[in-house]
Structures are given as structure tokens and as C-alpha cells.
Amino acid sequence: MTTPAIVVVGAGPVGLTAALTLSRRGIPVTVLEQGDELATESRASTFHPPTLEMLRDLGVLDALLHKGIVASTFQYRDRRGGEIATLDLAVLSEDTPFPFRVQCEQSKLTPILLDALDTADVRFGCRVDGLLSTDNSVVLRTVQGPIRADWVIGADGAHSAVRHGSGVEFEGSTYPERFLVASVEEDLERALPGIAPINYLFDPDEWLVLLRTPHHWRVLLPTPADTDDEYELRRLPTRLDAVADLGRPWKVAHASLYRVHQRVADRFRHGRVLLTGDAAHLNNPLGGMGMNSGIHDAVQLASTLADVIGGAPDERLDEVAAQRRIVAVEHVQRTSHDNWNRLRESGGNHRQQLKALAADPVAARTYLRRACLLDSLEPRP
Ligand SMILES: Cc1cc2nc3c(=O)[nH]c(=O)nc-3n(C[C@H](O)[C@H](O)[C@H](O)COP(=O)(O)OP(=O)(O)OC[C@H]3O[C@@H](n4cnc5c(N)ncnc54)[C@H](O)[C@@H]3O)c2cc1C
């Protein structure tokens, strides 16, 4: 039986960030990943300013910037009436050295993190099936045999075996509609002149989101919960034509449907187990908060763990775990759910508010500090 000091379960963006945070502090870490390689799925694609600061501190920001697109503005639009308001992240220039979002798929960040983890023991094809915790250690049941750890960081995603094995509840709800995300090989700036790299289009019947990524535009559409997947993919071309008529079918590189949940673990620490990222909380993707807040969990909990290993009181971990849960509920869930509600509204009231916001840099700054999670990190530990 091997005896690693710290085991991170899951080599997604959150697990690899936790591992790199520990590794940069000189603490040996083992990462167990069930897949035979890093995931390549198209998922999160927005990096907010505080996440960019954290990635800079870990020494991986330049590599990400090299692969991504800088988006300084985002836009609210009425699906029928066009632009409502364009918000410029430049109003955050006193709050962050990076007053912009970076558009880049999470599957481009994970290889960068893995490369930076050159001294860590990263084991692919190693699924964790359960665990047994005592006061001082945890034994993980894996397909490669039992592995004992002094501490475990669960970063194994929505269906987390670490969370299940720790008996932590994951309460919440599932949205009444699925989301359909299509990556398209079209120049939407030409098809819809005046759009920003990130656009939220309001419509009570069919809201949508248009996001630029380095090689595609992504279109996010609500889709009924109970229809057949094949039927939905067959009718996608008609729905895309309704977004912009190109005079020919849109070129779709990839499309998938998924269910969206709002759930939070009842605690983020269970003895020697810490929960981070999707293993600890799930939210809808509107506003790009899932991966970002997960990376914040990873940095804050892994740095605090490094402090505790270095002699800081163990209670610091309780405090930070409790604070990260508050962020998940009061910032991430609340803001992403408000974003969903707002996209479906038909009234003009909040549109007037957004117009007023775009015209008032002080109000825009307050709004954007919350939207990009800067506020959720105050006071910074
Ligand atoms: C379609 C889609 C679009 C999204 N868009 C956005 C967005 O725009 N912005 C945003 O911030 N978020 C977005 N999200 C959410 C974002 O993708 C997740 O929040 C993010 O992937 C969480 O990272 P993670 O590392 O916690 O989990 P994951 O990325 O799920 O990684 C978990 C890892 O653990 C591994 N694993 C799982 N179980 C085990 C086990 N038992 N043993 C060992 N390994 C295991 C998995 O193979 C995986 O590699 C989106 C999600 C989806 C599905």
C-alpha cells in the first residue's frame, strides 16, 4: 500500500489547480483520475479576472492567454430589438490587473496545469470507488487497490465518489429545461453586426447565449426536458436559422444536450476530506461561474491545507470550507439563477436598469465586481 501525503481525486481544472497549488508550496501530491487521459469535452469557456490572477500566481497564465481570446466587453441584447447594453470590464481597472474575461475552453487549461505539475504523481485510469475515513487518515478504494492518504481533496465532479463516500448530502434542484450547446464554424460578428464576444439575448419564448471561443462561436439554447435527443439535434438547424439567416445551413462542429442543476454539498469539509468544484456545488452555466468558483475553491482550500500542514491551526480549514460554501450559495447560485430568470423576462424594467448601468461607470463597477466573482473573494484570506 502506498502512502501519499495528499491525494487529489479528479484531474479536471479544479483538481489540477489544487494539486498545482500544493506542489508550488513544495508539498508532494498524488492525483487519481479515472479517465485514461484528460477530458477533451467542450465545457466551460470563460475565465473571470480573479481566476486569471490565481493562474498568474501559479505561473500558468501566459500559456492560457496564448491560447485564449481577451474579451473586454459583454452585451445584453433583446432577441428581437438588438442591443440593450454593452458593459465594459475596463471599469474594473482599479480592482484587478486583468479587467477582462478570457475566452478559452477548459480543455485547453488542463494540459497546461498538467505540464506545470512536472513533479507530481498523476495516475490515469485510476477510478476511486469509495473511501473509509478515520480521524487521522483516509483510505481510498481504487481500481488499482487501496491508497492511504493523510488528506484527500475531492475534485471528482458532479457524481463525486469522494462526496458519496463521505456521506455528504448534495441537495438542490434540477432545472425544468435542458441546455443545448452548439459549437459552430461561422463568423457571427458578420451575421449579427455589433455583437460582443459574449452576448446574452433576452426572450420570453427562447432566450439564448452567444459566446466566442478561439476556434468557434458557441450557441446555448434552452430545450425541453422530456424530448428525444435525436429530435432536438434534428431541429437544431431550424433554430439556428432563426438566430441568423445565413442563406444556407449553419456549419455545426459539435452539439450536445445536458441537464442543469443547482446543488450544494451540506459541508465542504468532512474530517480529512475537502470537497471542491463540481464535487461540492453545481449551478447553471449562465455567467460562467462553475469552473471559476471551483478554481477559487481549489486555490483557497489547498493553500489553507498547506498552511495547516505548515503548523497553522486546523480550524482555519473549517473557516475556509464554510466560507467557500457561503460563496457557492450566496454568489454563484444566486447570480447564475438570477441570470436565468432575467433571460426569460419579457418586461422592460430590468432592460432600463441595464441601460442605466452601462451609462454609469460607478454602478457598472459594483455590478461587474459581483458578476465576475471579485466580491466573493473579499476579504481575501
Ligand atoms: C456544457 C457545459 C458548459 C459549461 N460552461 C461553463 C462556463 O461557461 N463557465 C463555467 O465556469 N463553468 C461551465 N461549466 C461547468 C464547468 O465545466 C464545471 O464547473 C467544471 O468542469 C468543474 O471542474 P471540476 O474539475 O470540478 O470537475 P470536472 O471537470 O467534471 O472534472 C472531474 C474529473 O474527475 C474525474 N473523476 C470523476 N469521478 C472520478 C472517480 N470516481 N475517480 C477518479 N476520477 C474521477 C473525471 O474523469 C474528471 O476528469 C459548464 C459545464 C458544462 C457541462
Give a verbal description of the structure.
This protein has 381 residues and is an alpha+beta fold. It has a domain at 6-69 and 105-171 and 262-341: FAD/NAD(P)-binding domain (3-Layer(bba) Sandwich). The chain has helices spanning 13-24, 49-57, 61-67, 106-116, 161-165, 188-191, 229-234, 236-243, 290-309, 315-343, 349-358, 361-371, and strands spanning 6-9, 29-32, 46-47, 69-71, 73-78, 82-88, 101-103, 121-123, 128-133, 138-142, 147-149, 151-154, 170-174, 177-184, 198-202, 208-212, 217-224, 252-258, 261-265, 269-270, 273-275, 281-282. The strands form 5 sheets. A 7-stranded mixed beta sheet has the order 6-5-15-16-17-14-18. It has a 6-stranded mixed beta sheet with strand order 8-2-1-12-21-20. A hairpin with a 4-residue loop joins strand 9 and strand 10 (138-142). Helix 1 runs parallel beside helix 4. The model has no long low-confidence stretch (mean pLDDT 94).
